[in-house]
């Protein structure tokens, strides 16, 4: 059976869950935040649960109730969790298998931009990419700190396309997150969801991306350069 092909000039690629495994950083950030405010960790997957809910812009009340976090400490917990994650992630994230080879192949035919919901200066993300030996593949980096509205609003997608000087309809957004798929569709880009991150296929199907693939290493066979 022929592979589905998407025409593109540029790829706007998510960071956490798409090219790097951030689960260890999520877990450590949750442990740090909970221990600071005196909460109790209910399971080994607490960091993953928080990250999933934050990615989907969901309330954390259920999580807070399970971990005995007082109402007056909940805002403080979120601040501590994000601060800890942003501090830990640059040194804790790990490349998914064969990502380097895949990005090298993609960069020969497409312009690449990195997009991330992390609300940090792009220099910190660049430093992380340098550690992972990926920085040379990306023409630009867009973080949530640089746009007025984070995903699912299209601001980051539009900014990345503008910085690449590529019409957004010639871009493909690649992410493990449904909200990034929403943002890409809202901007007018094509969208590819990967199953390497926080969300299952059943969750991503609901966002109706143009394509769902196992991970980013499967992407090259589905692209046509224009």
Topology overview:
Elements: E1 6-8, E2 10-14, E3 20-21, H1 23-37, H2 46-55, H3 61-66, H4 74-92, E4 94-95, H5 99-107, E5 111-116, H6 122-131, E6 140-143, H7 155-164, E7 171-175, H8 178-187, E8 190-194, H9 201-205, E9 211-213, E10 223-225
Parallel strand pairs: 1-10, 2-5, 2-7, 5-6, 7-8, 8-9
Antiparallel strand pairs: 3-4
Q: Strand order of the main beta sheet, please? A: 6-5-2-7-8-9
CATH topology-level fold name of the largest domain: Rossmann fold
What is the arithmetic mean of pLDDT?
Answer: 89
Low-pLDDT runs of 5+ residues are none
CATH superfamily of the largest domain: HAD superfamily/HAD-like
Largest sheet: 6 strands, parallel
Enumerate how many helices there are, as a single number: 9
Residues in β-strands, percent: 15-25%
Helix content: 40-55%
**N-to-C terminal Cα separation, in Å?**
23 Å
Radius of gyration: 17 Å
Choose one word for the global shape.
Answer: globular
Structural class: alpha/beta
The sequence of SSEs as H and E is EEEHHHHEHEHEHEHEHEE
- Name of the top-level CATH class of the largest domain: Alpha Beta
CATH architecture of the largest domain: 3-Layer(aba) Sandwich
Describe the structure using short key phrases:
single chain; 2 domains; 9 helices; 42% helix
Structure described in brief:
The chain is an alpha/beta fold. The chain has two domains: 6-21 and 93-225, 3-Layer(aba) Sandwich (Rossmann fold), CATH 3.40.50; 23-92. It has helices at residues 23-37, 46-55, 61-66, 74-92, 99-107, 122-131, 155-164, 178-187, 201-205, and strands at 6-8, 10-14, 20-21, 94-95, 111-116, 140-143, 171-175, 190-194, 211-213, 223-225.
